[in-house]
């Protein structure tokens, strides 16, 4: 909606030299304007735009001249000058085009002299010999040939010279390129020149055909012919030269075909020559000698793939495929090209080449379409959809439609679209609908899963061919299926495009077939109704993407549907308000209205005035519990189609209402949306105000506006101003002390966008200016935001201050400035890491102040008077220089001290803060225009030395073997030597022997450490030492480590910044750069040293951050020596890794520490456009090291190589360039996994994991087996063809040993990895007969993997088998597996094999039964066969089978069959025999006869759980209505259970009891939800004495899980059934039961037990109170206490949610009842719980608590019947409503006198300061990372302000005064005491405490406001006379 700024066009002016001016001035006349004087005038202008206007006047002047002027010397001179101007202008200069178009209109009689003049100039140009000036000549030639008649005439005249020039130029560039080998920058420049040269030579041949047509030049002696031969030869060489850029090769391919076509005779033989070249079948004898001479290299049989590709491109682009001009040979060539391209597609895998190939295939389909129009019948047959060639093209499409490269996916879509058109053209005449090819395609596509992206575009293309209706006839649910997919963002755009194609096509079909208006309901039912259902009930992601992608398209197609949507949603909006997880009809309505208004289908004023949507309805939307509904309601107000639409008063009021409750939102995405929507609103205000200002001046239009808005423009502008002022006031108001991070983030971001949008352009009236609203308090508030612990708040505050800096700096007095500067300097050396960030922002703000030099810096640095005299130096530069100098002096001194004692430095002055501030100051300096260059040079040199010396001090710690455990001691200054000794000891002593042998410390180290052992403290004992100020400070190991690694971090970032910001010196201008080449090289060596030797991850990761900045600068640098450094470094480090020298200092840890980072930085900085030579070189080396051919080679290089490869595969910056190496990486990792050395196996595993992510994408679902991160076998093996034989071979080797009977079992480690990969592949229904890479050969091997002795491998082979089988093969494979199971227990039977087979059967059946096969006859038959076969192997589930694990596995198969058969039974299929057999299995089981095993027997628990599931499954089936209604004897027999639920509940194993209890719970929940009265379909048959059993269990149960379940069931049951049984079964009356449950809630060990006990007790209390039974007072008190305990902030979420649920259940009965039932203090106590929960940090808890308010609100509505009330609100609004409700209830209960003091106590708070009173001063916290407040969401002052607002309202309504109220007097005294104490404590804080003591300062500021509000209300409560008396006393 926001407008973009127009770009200004840059035009460079031309100049004439002295000689040209003289020539013209000779003819120019002062008195009249002639051509010469016009040109002189034109050359004098210095502005290109004005020169354009001047040149346009030439033609009218020339046309006025007479016919004889051709011989006029003045004209001749002018034409000469014009020619010189034309050729001197740059190609992109608009002047050149203007001049050409002017000269195109030259009168005929002037053409000859003009051509002569231009020919002279061009001849001069062609004399150029400098290779680097050729580009200008080429540009001139190109512009002459394009649309410039004069230019063409010149080239015709000089045709031979031009050809000769081009011929020479191509050879020269080739030679120059050879000379500059390795200099990438020069070579790139030459490549681009070469490209232009080839293009120009092609343009000459194409545009000037007539010059070379005719046979004159075709004899071998003619000059033109020889030039053409030379050009052809050069282009052939370029085509064959793989070192050139790919674009040069492509263009050369075009040129070769073009030149050959121009020269070849007879022309009809040309196609067969090209066919021969492509197929490698050219005989030299049949080819003209000139072709062999110049392009003979193309006639060899083996041309590289890329050359063939470019030749195909040339042939397709340069030959004429239309109207059959090439005859049969042409058709043959067309088919040959297709087959060559398809065979190339499997070979060429490099991303850029693969992209070109797909593009060329698109060109082929276009050419084929052109050729078909006039092609022979034979061609039509060969290009029919059923032909072999089209089949192969479809294979290509299916393989590439999900390719990771966008370009390839897009081309694939175009190829498919064109293929459909090709087929349609071949069957022209017959209808497409019934065509078998289309029918087959549709069927195949629909059978694919919806996660295949290629499916969408292909279906879309098919819809265009056959129509939506035909596809819907196959499956009516398609629209709903596609809408369901839209919860995945990666699929949503594809899905919405397909839907758009479908509904647009459908609408067009309806409008053609039916009368107006009759079809719209049917269309709505298909396309709109499912949408509305999802909008109301769908999940968050799905609704969001549907609203973003689908809704706008639907409304665009049929805007009238909007009224249908509004009508349907309005009808249900009251009933279906939504919740925190669903939008409801109200949310859906907001979304539809917002989209419609934003796309211009609706005017908000119209629907509000017509009453369609009320203000109340929008208000409810603005504070809805679902944050997205709030955003949509806000969007409805802010987004409009026209950016100048006037904002109405009503909209402004609604926005103000929104801002009261929505700024404190924890979700970053919601905050971003709020900010961007309000930004749109402000833009609208700004733009409509400009329109209003204009209208104000134009009186006639003003009346029109007044008619439409009923208001004069000035009045609207005043409203705008007031609105913006109030918004800003609100935003500054919420930056109060203690406001949360989300609030601050929103407020500052919105203020920033206001400052940006309402900035004043010159000469424009502005409706609002932020800087006029700013006062010193506001500036103070913004500066205080720097103290926030969140860096983004600091950034926002800083950016806002920068926008307002003139006002902000003027409001800073010198005293305040000094204090702030002092604070910043102090903070820069604080031990708390976030303080230095604050210091950096403060300093960056203060350097803009003009007075900084003399007010602050003067005290610290000696003054430099020259600086003051030099007025050209900017304030910022002067101040920054001063600040950096000051920091540098300090840090140099501190480094000097740290060398003596690192511990003292860590405790008193960690140096990293200073360095951080220096980096920050450097980053905002304008480095391109510095004045004090020499000073800066000196500073930079000092900074670099400082960095090195700081690094030297701290690096021993971060490079030690164990940096975390290091606590060196120096209790007194004398022991500094000992510190040095320790630091010396911990220097890395483990070199490359790391993997080979245990570390042996030197003997004396042992002795030393023993000596020290008695002095060394343990890690958590802090050591005391005296700092500079002699105060005691503690040093912990954490402090030392933090000081060291943060210092390393800051040094790295500083050096990186210096490299990045400072223009590196080039040899030509040594004075310019501030940093020398030598310095850059040294910095590079520094990084290399630290990356290759640090062990602390923090240290090398941060060195990497700086190093990346350096390498990026080097790759862009012009200096040859710097440019080649990365290459040199890379080869050095690879050599070092390879040689594996024992003396090597490379850090040998298990993940190679910083080495991968180092190589990653070097490779990632390589230019993206180049050939990626470094990457190719590195990958080749690394892969050969990672998979060594001989075993003997050393392990270390292999480990390093594997670790580096892992980093490279994970690096997204290398993108698709790394893909060609993926297959080799997989091989290396699988082979490495078999290594005997642990380190190699470890690195291989990590590499394998990185590769799986690289191939299949980042995991997008928790479900391991989801199809999202998988691909079809075809796609996988076509992208990595070398893996097909490799994986097959590996599987064969692994499985060959698994079946051997005699051999002992070998465990193959690589089996696991193989199964992991294979489990990610699946067959596609699109797999055709053409696929050589079928995945069928893998199936037998995977089945054999099920025999592995490793449990996890058997499990994985079970899962991996499923995707390898197409659905139709599943029953047949499952039967084969079942039949392979043994018939009885044989002695040599292998249980592993049986178990593996059963797991495979289980997974196959699961996928088969869950698949959406319509219950077909085949399906039923297959199922019967499987059930029969299962019956024959039942012995495996009984006692005959000794192994419990396989018994359990067989039972799992039975359980699954049982649950699914129950479903089919409802559809009328009977399986009585099966149930009979199940009952036999159950009665034979140990559950019936007693369990003879001990719990330790392997598999026992598994078996018991499986048999229990079977029992439960059979019980629920036999209880079902189908069996009951059957009536047959068999059915009656079956209905008798073999085991009862009660039996399960009494089992000694808690696992069995738990399963039974879960089944009962599920049954009860289903029964309650459905309220099933008649039958219990599919629900467990519950015993009659269940209550007795459960109550007994509740007292005796020992297992906590079972106990919780028992209580949960009792909680769900109806208490009217439970309570009567308590007396007899557990001898308790209801009150005793209540006491028992309350005790449980109080003392239970687990939170689950406590929560369920509390809920049960609460339900019991309500039940007793409602039935007027007596509950003892103390029990009620205990219950209230418990609820309060549950609501405390630090409780677990589960307990907080339980408390919220309890409070909601008692709201209507106890909290908001007509009469007080519990007594005032308890009821208010419970209300306080609600208010606490509404301020909990966890959103789930706040949402649950907000439901309490919803219940209270609905009670209020029903009793009062008000017209509008909020019913479903977010927590901030609920909190406000809660205080309002409490005040109303006090009135209703008549308890105002008792209630107000309690509320005043709430207001005053819990006396946070009581503890502080005792301590003499607020002590600083020791901990290094201070967490501050625990709750990051709640804002105490928001709570205080809302409560006081309602209290004041209550007092004003009731006119309450409390004369002699002891409670009040007591409160007054406390408040006055606290007020005094606060003042005292605030006075005791140091200056600017908001920075030095942020937490204390915030706490005191909050308490101060609480007390003052409380005192104000207390004063109001006193009767007037007491107030007067007090005033008199005062």
The Cα radius of gyration reads 42 Å
Low-confidence stretches: 968-976, 986-1033, 1065-1071, 1572-1577, 1808-1822, 1924-1930
Question: Structural class of the helix and strand makeup?
Answer: mainly alpha
The total beta strand count reads 4
Q: How would you write the strand order of the largest sheet? A: 1-2
Helix content estimate = 55-70%
**Intertermini distance:** 62 Å
Shape, principal axes of CA atoms: globular
**Helical segment tally?**
97
Average predicted confidence as pLDDT: 83
- Proportion in β-strands: under 5%
Biggest sheet statistics: 2 strands, antiparallel
Structure description:
- The protein is mainly alpha-helical.
- Among the domains are: 320-429; 1124-1254; 1270-1351; 1791-1930, no CATH class.
- Strands 1-2 form a two-stranded antiparallel ribbon. Strands 3-4 form a two-stranded parallel ribbon.
- Helix 10 packs parallel to helix 13 and helix 31 runs antiparallel to helix 32 (584-598).
- The longest helix has 30 residues, at 668-697.
- The two termini are 62 Å apart.
Summarize this, please?
With 1930 residues, the protein is mainly alpha-helical.
Sequence-ordered SSE layout with sheet pairings:
Blueprint: H1 18-25, H2 35-44, H3 48-55, H4 58-64, H5 73-88, H6 94-103, H7 111-126, H8 134-145, H9 149-157, H10 159-179, H11 184-207, H12 209-212, H13 223-240, H14 246-263, H15 270-279, H16 289-295, H17 305-318, H18 327-345, H19 351-373, H20 377-382, H21 388-400, H22 406-426, H23 436-447, H24 453-466, H25 468-474, H26 478-485, H27 492-513, H28 520-527, H29 529-537, H30 540-557, H31 561-573, H32 584-598, H33 604-609, H34 615-622, H35 627-638, H36 649-661, H37 668-697, H38 699-709, H39 713-733, H40 741-757, H41 770-773, H42 776-784, H43 791-803, H44 805-810, H45 814-827, H46 833-846, H47 852-860, H48 865-869, H49 875-900, H50 902-908, H51 912-923, H52 933-958, H53 976-985, H54 1003-1013, E1 1023-1026, E2 1032-1035, H55 1037-1061, H56 1077-1093, H57 1097-1115, H58 1120-1123, H59 1125-1139, H60 1155-1164, H61 1173-1186, H62 1195-1210, H63 1222-1232, H64 1238-1256, E3 1271-1272, H65 1273-1279, H66 1283-1296, H67 1310-1318, E4 1321-1322, H68 1338-1345, H69 1351-1364, H70 1370-1379, H71 1391-1410, H72 1417-1432, H73 1444-1466, H74 1472-1484, H75 1486-1489, H76 1500-1518, ...
Parallel strand pairs: 3-4
Antiparallel strand pairs: 1-2
Helix pairs in contact: 2-3, 3-6, 5-7, 7-9, 8-9, 8-11, 10-11, 10-13, 11-14, 13-14, 13-16, 14-17, 15-18, 17-18, 17-19, 18-19, 18-21, 19-22, 21-22, 22-24, 23-24, 24-27, 26-27, 27-30, 29-30, 29-32, 30-32, 31-32, 32-35, 34-35, 34-36, 35-37, 36-39, 37-38, 37-39, 37-40, 40-43, 43-46, 45-46, 46-51, ...
Domain DUF2428: 939-1239
Organism: Geospiza parvula (Small tree-finch)
Pfam family, one: TPR_Trm732
């Amino acid at each position: 909606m926001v407008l973009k700024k127009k770009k200004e066009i840059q035009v460079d002016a031309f100049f004439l030299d002295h000689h040209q001016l003289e020539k013209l001035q000779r003819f120019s006349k002062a008195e009249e304007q002639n051509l010469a004087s016009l040109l002189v005038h034109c050359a004098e202008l210095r502005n290109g735009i004005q020169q354009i206007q001047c040149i346009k006047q030439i033609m009218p002047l020339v046309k006025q001249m007479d016919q004889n002027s051709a011989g006029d010397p003045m004209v001749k001179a002018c034409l000469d000058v014009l020619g010189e101007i034309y050729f001197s202008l740059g190609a992109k200069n608009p002047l050149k085009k203007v001049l050409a178009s002017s000269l195109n209109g030259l009168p005929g009689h002037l053409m000859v002299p003009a051509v002569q003049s231009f020919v002279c100039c061009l001849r001069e140009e062609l004399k150029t010999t400098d290779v680097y000036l050729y580009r200008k000549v080429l540009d001139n030639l190109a512009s002459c040939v394009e649309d410039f008649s004069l230019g063409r005439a010149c080239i015709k005249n000089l045709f031979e010279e031009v050809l000769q020039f081009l011929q020479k130029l191509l050879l020269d560039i080739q030679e120059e390129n050879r000379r500059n080998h390795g200099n990438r920058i020069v070579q790139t420049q030459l490549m681009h020149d070469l490209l232009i040269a080839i293009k120009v030579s092609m343009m000459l041949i194409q545009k000037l055909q007539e010059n070379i047509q005719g046979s004159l030049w075709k004899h071998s002696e003619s000059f033109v012919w020889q030039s053409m031969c030379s050009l052809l030869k050069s282009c052939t060489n370029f085509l064959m030269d793989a070192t050139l850029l790919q674009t040069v090769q492509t263009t050369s391919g075009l040129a070769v075909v073009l030149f050959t076509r121009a020269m070849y005779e007879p022309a009809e033989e040309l196609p067969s020559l090209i066919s021969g070249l492509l197929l490698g079948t050219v005989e030299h004898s049949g080819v003209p000698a000139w072709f062999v001479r110049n392009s003979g290299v193309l006639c060899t049989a083996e041309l590289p793939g890329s050359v063939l590709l470019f030749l195909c491109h040339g042939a397709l682009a340069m030959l004429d495929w239309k109207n059959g001009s090439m005859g049969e040979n042409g058709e043959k060539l067309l088919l040959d090209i297709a087959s060559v391209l398809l065979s190339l597609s499997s070979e060429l895998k490099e991303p850029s080449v693969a992209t070109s190939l797909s593009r060329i295939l698109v060109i082929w389909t276009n050419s084929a379409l052109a050729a078909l129009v006039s092609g022979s019948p034979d061609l039509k047959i060969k290009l029919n959809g059923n032909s072999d060639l089209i089949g192969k093209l479809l294979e290509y499409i299916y393989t590439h439609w999900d390719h990771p490269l966008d370009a390839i996916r897009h081309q694939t879509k175009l190829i498919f679209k064109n293929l459909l058109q090709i087929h349609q053209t071949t069957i022209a005449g017959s209808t497409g609908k019934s065509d078998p090819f289309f029918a087959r395609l549709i069927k195949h596509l629909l059978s694919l899963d919806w996660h295949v992206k290629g499916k969408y575009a292909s279906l879309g293309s098919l819809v265009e061919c056959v129509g939506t209706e035909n596809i819907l006839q196959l499956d009516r649910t398609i629209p709903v299926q596609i809408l369901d997919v839209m919860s995945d963002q990666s699929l949503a755009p594809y899905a919405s495009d397909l839907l758009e194609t479908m509904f647009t096509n459908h609408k067009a079909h309806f409008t053609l077939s039916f009368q107006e208006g009759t079809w719209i309901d049917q269309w709505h039912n298909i396309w709109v109704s499912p949408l509305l259902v999802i909008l109301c009930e769908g999940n968050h992601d799905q609704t969001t993407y549907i609203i973003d992608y689908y809704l706008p398209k639907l409304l665009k197609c049929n805007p009238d549907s909007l009224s249908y949507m509004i009508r349907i949603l309005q009808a249900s909006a009251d009933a279906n308000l939504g919740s925190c997880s669903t939008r409801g009809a109200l949310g859906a309505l907001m979304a539809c209205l917002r989209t419609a208004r934003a796309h211009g289908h609706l005017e908000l004023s119209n629907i509000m005035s017509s009453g369609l949507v009320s203000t109340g309805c929008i208000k409810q939307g603005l504070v809805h519990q679902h944050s997205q509904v709030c955003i949509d309601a806000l969007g409805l107000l802010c987004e409009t189609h026209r950016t100048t639409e006037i904002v109405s008063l009503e909209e402004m009021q609604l926005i103000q209402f929104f801002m009261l409750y929505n700024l404190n939102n924890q979700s970053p995405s919601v905050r971003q949306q709020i900010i961007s929507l309000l930004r749109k609103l402000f833009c609208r205000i700004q733009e409509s105000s400009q329109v209003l200002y204009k209208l104000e001046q134009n009186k006639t239009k003003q009346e029109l506006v007044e008619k439409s808005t009923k208001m004069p423009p000035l009045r609207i502008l005043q409203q705008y101003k007031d609105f913006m002022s109030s918004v800003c006031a609100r935003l500054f108001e919420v930056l109060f002390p203690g406001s949360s991070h989300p609030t601050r983030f929103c407020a500052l971001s919105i203020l920033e966008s206001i400052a940006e949008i309402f900035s004043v352009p010159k000469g424009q009236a502005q409706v609002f200016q932020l800087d006029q609203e700013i006062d010193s308090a506001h500036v103070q508030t913004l500066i205080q935001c720097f103290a926030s612990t969140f860096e983004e708040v600091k950034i926002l505050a800083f950016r806002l201050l920068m926008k307002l800096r003139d006002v902000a700096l003027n409001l800073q007095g010198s005293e305040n400035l000094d204090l702030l500067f002092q604070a910043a300097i102090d903070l820069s050396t604080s031990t708390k890491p976030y303080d230095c960030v604050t210091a950096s922002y403060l300093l960056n703000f203060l350097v803009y102040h003009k007075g900084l030099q003399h007010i602050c810096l003067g005290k610290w640095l000696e003054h430099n008077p020259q600086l003051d005299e030099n007025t050209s130096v900017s304030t910022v530069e002067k101040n920054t220089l001063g600040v950096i100098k000051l920091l540098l002096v300090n840090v140099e001194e501190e480094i000097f001290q740290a060398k003596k004692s690192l511990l003292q430095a860590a405790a008193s002055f960690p140096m990293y803060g200073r360095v951080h501030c220096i980096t920050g100051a450097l980053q905002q300096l304008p480095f391109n225009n510095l004045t004090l260059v020499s000073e800066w040079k000196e500073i930079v040199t000092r900074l670099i030395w400082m960095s090195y010396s700081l690094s030297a001090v701290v690096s021993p710690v971060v490079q030690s073997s164990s940096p975390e455990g290091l606590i060196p001691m120096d209790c007194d200054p004398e022991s500094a030597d000992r510190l040095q000794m320790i630091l010396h000891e911990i220097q890395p002593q483990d070199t490359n022997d790391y993997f080979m042998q245990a570390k042996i410390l030197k003997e004396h180290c042992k002795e030393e450490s023993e000596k020290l052992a008695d002095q060394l403290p343990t890690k958590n004992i802090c050591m005391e030492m005296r700092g500079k100020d002699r105060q005691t400070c503690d040093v912990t190991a954490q402090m030392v480590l933090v000081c060291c690694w943060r210092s390393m971090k800051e040094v790295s970032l500083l050096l990186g910044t210096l490299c990045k910001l400072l223009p590196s010196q080039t040899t030509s201008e040594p004075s310019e750069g501030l940093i020398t080449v030598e310095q850059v090289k040294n910095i590079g060596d520094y990084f290399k040293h630290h990356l290759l030797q640090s062990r602390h991850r923090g240290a090398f990761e941060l060195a990497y951050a700086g190093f990346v900045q350096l390498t990026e600068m080097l790759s862009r640098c012009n200096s040859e020596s710097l440019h080649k450094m990365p290459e040199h470094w890379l080869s050095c480090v690879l050599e070092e890794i390879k040689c594996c020298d024992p003396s090597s200092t490379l850090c040998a840890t298990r993940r190679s520490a910083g080495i991968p980072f180092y190589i990653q930085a070097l490779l990632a900085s390589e230019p993206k456009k180049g050939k990626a030579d470094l990457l190719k070189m590195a990958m080749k080396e690394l892969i050969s090291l990672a998979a060594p051919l001989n075993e003997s080679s050393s392990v270390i290089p292999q480990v390093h190589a594997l670790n580096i490869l892992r980093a490279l595969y994970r690096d997204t910056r290398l993108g698709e360039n790394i893909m060609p190496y993926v297959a080799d990486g997989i091989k290396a990792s699988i082979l490495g996994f078999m290594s005997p050395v642990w380190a190699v196996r470890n690195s291989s595993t990590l590499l394998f994991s990185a590769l799986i992510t690289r191939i299949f994408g980042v995991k997008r679902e928790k479900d391991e087996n989801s199809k999202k991160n998988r691909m079809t076998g075809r796609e996988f093996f076509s992208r990595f063809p070398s893996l097909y034989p490799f994986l097959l071979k590996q599987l064969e080797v692994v499985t060959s040993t698994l079946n051997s009977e005699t051999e002992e079992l070998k465990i193959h480690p690589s089996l696991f990895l193989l199964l992991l990969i294979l489990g990610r592949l699946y067959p596609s229904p699109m797999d055709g007969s053409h696929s050589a890479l079928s995945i069928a050969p893998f199936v037998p091997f995977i089945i054999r993997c099920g025999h592995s002795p490793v449990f996890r491998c058997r499990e994985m082979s079970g899962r991996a088998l499923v995707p390898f089988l197409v659905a139709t093969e599943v029953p047949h494979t499952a039967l084969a597996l079942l039949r392979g199971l043994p018939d009885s227990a044989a002695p040599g039977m292998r249980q592993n094999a049986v178990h593996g087979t059963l797991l495979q059967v289980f997974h196959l059946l699961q996928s088969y039964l869950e698949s959406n096969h319509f219950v077909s006859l085949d399906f039923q038959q297959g199922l019967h066969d499987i059930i029969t076969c299962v019956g024959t192997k039942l012995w495996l589930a009984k006692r005959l089978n000794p192994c419990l694990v396989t018994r359990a596995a067989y039972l799992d198969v039975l359980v699954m069959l049982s649950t699914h058969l129950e479903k089919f039974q409802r559809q009328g299929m009977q399986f009585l025999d099966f149930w009979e057999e199940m009952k036999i299995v159950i009665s034979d089981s140990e559950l019936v006869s007693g369990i003879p095993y001990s719990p330790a027997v392997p598999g026992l628990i598994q078996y018991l759980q499986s048999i229990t599931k079977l029992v439960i499954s059979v019980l629920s089936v036999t209880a079902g209505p189908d069996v009951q209604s059957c009536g047959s004897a068999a059915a009656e027999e079956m209905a008798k259970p073999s085991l009862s639920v009660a039996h399960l509940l009494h089992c000694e194993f808690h696992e069995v009891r738990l399963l039974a209890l879960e089944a009962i719970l599920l049954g009860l929940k289903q029964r309650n939800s459905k309220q099933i009265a008649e039958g219990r379909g599919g629900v467990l048959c519950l015993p009659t004495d269940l209550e007795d059993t459960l109550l007994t269990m509740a007292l005796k149960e020992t297992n906590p899980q079972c106990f919780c379940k028992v209580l949960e069931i009792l909680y769900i049951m109806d208490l009217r059934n439970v309570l009567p049984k308590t007396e007899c079964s557990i001898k308790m009356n209801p009150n005793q039961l209540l006491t028992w449950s309350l005790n449980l809630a109080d003392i239970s060990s687990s939170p689950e037990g406590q929560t369920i006990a509390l809920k049960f007790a609460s339900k019991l209390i309500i039940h007793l109170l409602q039935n007027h039974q007596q509950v003892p007072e103390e029990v009620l008190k205990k219950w209230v206490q418990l609820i309060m305990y549950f609501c405390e902030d630090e409780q677990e979420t589960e307990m907080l949610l339980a408390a919220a649920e309890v409070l909601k259940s008692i709201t209507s009965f106890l909290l908001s009842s007509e009469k007080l039932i519990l007594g005032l203090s308890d009821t208010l106590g419970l209300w306080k719980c609600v208010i606490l929960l509404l301020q909990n940090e966890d959103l789930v808890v706040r949402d649950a608590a907000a439901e309490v308010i919803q219940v209270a609100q609905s009670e209020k509505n029903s009793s009062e019947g008000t017209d509008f009330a909020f019913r479903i609100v977010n927590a901030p609004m609920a909190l406000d409503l809660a205080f309002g409700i409490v005040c109303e209830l006090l009135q209703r209960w008549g308890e105002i006198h008792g209630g107000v003091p309690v509320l005043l106590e709430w207001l005053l708070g819990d006396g946070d300061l009581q503890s502080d009173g005792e301590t003499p001063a607020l002590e600083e916290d020791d901990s290094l990372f201070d967490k501050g407040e625990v709750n990051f969401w709640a804002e105490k002052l928001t709570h205080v302000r809302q409560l006081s607002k309602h209290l004041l309202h209550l007092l004003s309504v009731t006119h309450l005064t409390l004369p002699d109220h002891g409670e009040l007097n007591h409160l007054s005294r406390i408040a006055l005491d606290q007020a005094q104490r606060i003042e005292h404590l605030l006075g005791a804080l140091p200056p600017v405490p908001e920075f030095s003591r942020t937490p204390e300062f915030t706490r005191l500021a909050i308490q101060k406001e609480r007390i003052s509000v409380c005192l104000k209300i207390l004063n109001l409560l006193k009767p007037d006379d007491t107030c007067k008396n007090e005033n008199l006393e005062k």
